[in-house]
Amino acid sequence: MNTIVNDLKEKWEALKAENPHLRIRNAAEKLGVSEAELLLTNVGEEVTVLKPEFANILTEVEKLGKVMALTRNDECVHERKGTYLNGDFSSPHAQLFVGEDIDLRIFMNHWKFAFAVVEGEALRLAPEGYAKKIDPSKVVNVLEDASEKRLPIMVFVGNRGIIQIHTGEVKKTMWHQQWFNVMDPDFNLHLDVTKIAEAWIVKKPTEDGEVTAIEVFNNEGEFIVQFFGKRKPGIPELQEWKDLVASLEQ
User: Fold this and answer.
1) Looking at domain 3-127, which CATH architecture does it have?
2) Please, where are the H alpha helices in the chain?
3) Which of 178, 179, 222, 245 has the fewest Cβ atoms surrounding its Cβ within 10 A?
4) Is the pLDDT of residue 75 over 70?
């Protein structure tokens, strides 16, 4: 990383520390640079520069399912949640997505850059109210409180090849050195708390209302573990889980 980029990265980190809820566009304005220049300070860490093959990128977005499309100018921000459907890139003048939720007219001749942002950085860039950073030590509270209250939860742990999910209560919790453990007859969890870099409360819109997750990351911005209250499609989120999550913000 050259000196200019490194200097900008340090200034942005300092600005985020002073104002954790500052959006990237406003940060760029304060620092006198573009949003793209700020993203470039994290290339190789949490940001990847994509080839400017915009039609190919947008065609793949449908596979992500329900997402948020955000378009803004200096005076107004438009956010719409839904699935990208019925993409039409046949015209050289304007491209389309025409769905009940996501409805876009795109003029790609004005597009210059494309970036992929990994989850941790995406959370920092999320609109206010959708993601809140909490003290990493509170991750242990999730399991301890769920155990104490006999609250059924969902625990997701995975890697590139597989994700495994526990749904139900956690009962016996205990420490062993830096590891916090669940030691139940049919479910064991071993969490090295020294490897936790960040923890976030994340609100996700669904057809059954808002669902809240606790998402935990390592220093590389990769998922360590994810927690939800126990639920199934068609069933709203448990109030007891909402109360537990609210206690983590205190």
Assistant:
1) 3-Layer(aba) Sandwich (3.40)
2) 3-18, 24-31, 35-40, 54-61, 119-125, 138-149, 239-248
3) 178
4) no
> Dihedrals φ, ψ of 245, to 5°?
-65, -40
pTM > 0.85: yes or no: no
Per the prediction, the chain carries an average pLDDT of 88
Q: Where are the domains of the chain?
A: 3-127, 132-248
CA distance 56 to 241: 40
CA distance 40 to 24: 12
Tens digit of pLDDT for each residue in 111-132?
Answer: 999 998 877 777 777 767 788 8
Reduced to 3 states (helix: H, G, I; strand: E, B; else coil), residue 83 is coil
Q: How many CB atoms lie within 10 A of CB 47?
A: 19
Same fold for the pair 3-127 and 132-248: yes
- Sign of the dihedral defined by the CA atoms of residues 165, 47, 125, 250, in that order: positive
